[in-house]
Every structure is written in structure tokens, then in C-alpha cells.
Design brief:
Blueprint lengths: L1 E4 L5 H19 L7 H12 L3 E8 L2 E10 L4 E9 L8 H15 L4 E7 L3 H9 L3 E5 L3 E7 L1
Parallel strand pairs: 4-5
Antiparallel strand pairs: 1-2, 2-3, 3-4, 5-7, 6-7
Length: about 150
């Protein structure tokens, strides 16, 4: 597994992975979600912006997963999404993406990583806790989690 920074040529793969993972989010959210092309393009553009992060996981030349993040300030960043194709789940892809994100953020002098996760997304919560994230807040549907680097 190799991790690299995303680029403009990754849009079709980004769109494909988002579409494959959308039903999982619908189950967690308990409702139908609309995947609009203009929203996808905006998310992708934000991930490639100066404040954004797009990391791509590869198995050979095949894209297997991605991670998006966003700088919130000079010292804080938010992990916004980790998406892994079904065939590559539970094979270390998400962990490698997280490790690469943390290394990249340390290199940018970020000291605090944040994320939000649905309370019923048990596997993601377990992964985040394994990586040292702590629950800092809770509402009726989600946890806010943070990690000090």
C-alpha cells in the first residue's frame, strides 16, 4: 500500500469511491443522502485547496481509498473523511491514510487534530481511539474527537 497526495486527475476516482461508500453513510445517518455533482466538485476542490488535504491510497496503480482534511487554523486541522473501497477494508488502508495525514500535519506544525464521527459508527470510533483520539463532545448523533500531536 502506498499513500500519495491527491491531484486534479483524481476526481473520477474520488467520485467513484464516494459513490461506493454513500450507502454506508446513509445507513449511519438513517436517511437517504443526495450525491450532487456540484457538491462533489466543491468538496474535491476544497480538498485540493491550500487549506485542504487529499491523500490517496494505492495498491499498485489502483486507488483503494482516500482521506480528506482541512486546516482550521495554523495549529488545528480537521480530518473530514476516510473512505475505503469495500474490497480493501480491514486491510490497513485506513490506518495508513491516518498515519500519513498525521505525519503531514506534524510537518505543517499542527498540534491538534479534530474529527466528527457518528455514534453508531463503531468501527471508525475504534480506529480513532486506537490512534489516540479522545472524545471531547457528544450530541444526539455524533462524537467530536481530538488528538494532540
Amino acid at each position: 500500500m502506498m499513500i500519495r497526495l491527491g491531484n486534479n486527475n483524481d476526481y473520477d476516482s474520488y467520485k467513484e469511491i464516494r459513490a461506493e461508500c454513500l450507502p454506508d453513510f446513509e445507513i449511519l445517518a438513517g436517511k437517504k443522502l443526495l450525491l450532487k455533482e456540484e457538491d462533489l466538485k466543491l468538496e474535491f476542490k476544497q480538498a485540493l485547496s491550500k487549506r485542504g488535504v487529499l491523500l490517496i491510497a494505492l495498491d499498485g496503480n489502483k486507488i483503494t481509498g482516500l482521506l480528506t482534511g482541512l486546516m482550521k487554523s495554523r495549529s488545528k486541522a480537521c480530518l473530514t473523511d476516510i473512505l475505503v473501497k469495500h474490497a480493501y477494508r480491514l486491510k490497513g488502508c485506513a490506518e495508513e491514510l491516518m498515519n500519513a495525514f498525521e505525519a503531514l500535519m506534524k510537518g505543517r506544525n499542527v498540534t491538534t487534530l479534530m474529527l466528527g464521527v457518528r455514534i453508531n459508527n463503531k468501527s471508525a470510533i475504534q480506529l480513532y481511539k486506537k490512534h489516540g483520539y479522545k472524545i471531547t463532545n457528544k450530541d444526539s448523533h455524533s462524537y467530536s474527537m481530538e488528538k494532540i500531536l
